[in-house]
């Protein structure tokens, strides 16, 4: 019997498992689906993947690979979901991870048992662990808005969107202006009769390429080569983007009240040109649903056949009682974004939303966790953990917008340097 349990074999679970293996630690890893890959496995039989057929990763290839397992340079700048899955599978197999996963086995309950944790599996088996690493993903439980009124057409959340085919010749409203919304609006635009995107706060639309170079490589150059602080580099980027893309108000996309560097980037090379071609228009927030029509905050009204809510995700842990850990208040209050001070035997992996790529950041989390569990360093006492959390929340308040959407936001460079310093990586 091992002392460590990992829940989930998506990119986070696989990455942490590899780091534990590198330190010679043994662990059990349970995956409710029949294979690894989580959200990157299109139509995953775990029923949890938010992947759509046209999805391409928005981090460019050189910034996406693992430190000891780079992505094949013959692949394109922005990998498709299938290409990324193949890369993850190759990484897992090169490190002997897939054979360690117990598939088709869901963790149904995690409860405290003295200083240990009792883990109940869907097979009915109960096991005891000193540490439970939770890597169940946080982008699969749809967050639905509560607009007044009723809509009579078809309604889905972006989590269930797969292809444009069902929207052929239809009038479609996409609610939200995050990355799911812009990807889906653009995907549907050429086949639908018309697409409207509705946004309450608007967003700065960043291109995927600037002067032929992937946008994240510009930021990487400023932060890593020129060693500029992240906020400076983001301010410079916002100027460059305005020069390269122009004033988005010309396309009917309002300029947000907040500066570009305060938000999670919305990336799309096609959105503004598609608005320019008349495929897509932009409306403010939905005021009311009126049968087959939708009224907007500017007093206009239009008829639609379908609404796609691309309104983000709720963080949920169905196997943890909310009396033990309430995600709505506690998911953003973790020591080093991983450890709840009240329950240091639980460790959350991948529960972050970085400005920058998630997957390489979780590689560093994995090394931090492996160093911690192999005794290379210890957690501070509860008071110090609370102090670190307060400092993080203060930095987050000063940096990002006050919205549920930013509960897990972290700055890649600052956060990775904190983990590296703790674990002497
Ligand atoms: C549409 C979309 C696009 C994205 N694009 C990017 C991008 O371009 N770049 C980027 O860095 N990030 C992107 N992300 C974020 C992405 O989710 C993370 O990068 C990362 O891959 C998530 O991996 P994960 O392992 O944490 O979660 P998941 O991939 O969701 O995997 C979680 C795994 O846990 C399993 N599981 C859940 N509950 C249980 C249970 N009770 N018992 C057993 N197993 C369980 C699931 O079956 C699943 O396999 C995107 C997210 C979305 C939704
Ligand atoms: N190609 C890619 O790589 C890709 C594609 C899709 C998603 N992703 C990633 O996956 C994660 C989730 O993205 P997401 O776009 O699904 O969700 P998201 O980033 O949380 O965006 C949700 C959008 O919906 C809006 N919204 C939320 N609640 C609303 C309400 N009640 N009324 C009106 N608008 C509302 C938000 O507006 P406010 O800003 O006003 O809150 C925001 O515009 C992100 O990290 C994203 O980068 C990546």
Describe the structure.
This protein is of the alpha/beta class and about 425 residues long. It has 10 helices and 25 strands. The strands form 8 sheets. A 5-stranded parallel beta sheet has the order 3-2-1-7-23, covered by helices on one side. A 5-stranded parallel beta sheet has the order 10-21-11-12-17. Strands 9-18-19-20 form a 4-stranded mixed beta sheet, with no helix packed on it. Strand 2, helix 2 and strand 3 form a beta-alpha-beta unit. Helix 4 packs antiparallel against helix 5. The model has no long low-confidence stretch (mean pLDDT about 95). The structure holds flavin-adenine dinucleotide and NADP nicotinamide-adenine-dinucleotide phosphate (NAP). The site of NADP nicotinamide-adenine-dinucleotide phosphate (NAP) has 26 residues, from helix 3.
SSE layout and pairings?
Elements lengths: L3 E4 L3 H12 L5 E3 L50 H14 L6 E2 L4 E7 L2 E6 L4 E4 L1 E4 L6 E2 L6 E3 L2 E4 L13 E5 L3 H11 L4 E5 L6 E2 L2 E2 L2 E2 H11 L4 H16 L20 E2 L3 H6 L3 E4 L2 E6 L1 E4 L4 E3 L2 E4 L3 E2 L12 H4 L15 E3 L4 E3 L2 H16 L8 H18 L9 E3 H12 L2
Parallel strand pairs: 1-2, 1-7, 2-3, 7-23, 9-18, 10-21, 11-12, 11-21, 12-17, 13-16, 24-25
Antiparallel strand pairs: 4-5, 5-6, 8-22, 14-15, 18-19, 19-20
This protein binds flavin-adenine dinucleotide and NADP nicotinamide-adenine-dinucleotide phosphate.
The site of flavin-adenine dinucleotide has 34 residues, from helix 1 and helix 8.
